[in-house]
Design a protein that fits this description.
single chain, 359 residues, alpha+beta, 7-stranded antiparallel β-sheet, 26% helix, binds zinc ion, metal-binding, zinc-finger
Amino acid sequence: MFTRLKKFQPYPSCSGFYIDYVSCNLGIFLCKECAVIHRSVGVHISLVKPLSSKSWHLSELNFLEKVGNMAARENYQKHLPLSYRRPTSLDPLVVREQWVRAKYEREEFSQPNRGSYRLGHKEGLLWKKDKHKATYKSRKFMLSGVDNCLMYFTKNPKKPKGKLNLFELNVTFCPAKMENPNGMQIVFYQKGEVRCIFVYAEEGQEIVSWYNAIRAAKLNAQLVAFPHETEAHLAAQVTWDFANEGWLQKSGPSASDPYRRRWFTMDRRHLMYFENPLDPTPRGMIFVGHRFDGFSVRRGVPPGYVQLPFGFTLITPNRRYLLFADNNEELARWFNVLDFVVETEPGPLDLPLSSRRSS
Ligand SMILES: [Zn+2]
């Protein structure tokens, strides 16, 4: 039985490698991670069964052969907008869970006009972190596809406290950093400065809806601004996740400076560092250019400096940054991420933001 089914459907439709489960009522094949999510949404939506099961009804097998992942996708994703984030197995739980719920429970992508994120307009309340305190306040947010902006309000309901141009902002989920399963970071880039805003919604559906509404509105704006680009090409980079984040020790400009512990974020070609992970603005930013322009990364730090374990050196045309990870795993990750950036030619979106003074 196992072989018959495996032969018929060798790979899951997600980014997972192996099929270990099926959904009997949906007629699809699942990897382990997706099976956990399917189970959590309930048997009325998806009836999960391990492939290793010994008992199969002929009708179940026939149904699985008849539907399968391709036909199910045809049906359940017929009207899936290009701007909607398709999750991978590495995505936060809220994204993967809401994907399953949107697709099979609410059937948002089987119908042409379901899901408020398609409209390019959205307003509602989100919990927003205070700029300098660890407290969150309920704030009204408004997304306007007409004005290409995201606004938020404090006391005055008529006059926005912040008005962020969609071309200058990015959104990404950051549940671990915020210690909140529905945490989302809005990064705003303007005049060489970076501003981070941290928000969450009580419901997973709501935060994922905001995220996809912002993506949809931004993609629409980009389609108008860049008429020669294809929608698929623009959608692939309409928002982006950070290549890596974490604590590092960083040297000052001279050998006698003490090392400081900073929270580092690799945002496309900008390595930003913060005093604390949820700070509104970075202490500094290092533009990481191409190898041909004098950028490189090396393991270890030059002699004459205090030597700590797990060190590496980021070399830019102006300065050498001595950095130290907490362990070998993190060192390898930072090294690979930076090495990849250095070896990749900058694209039109990778222009340097003028960096602030570092410390
Ligand atoms: Zn999967």
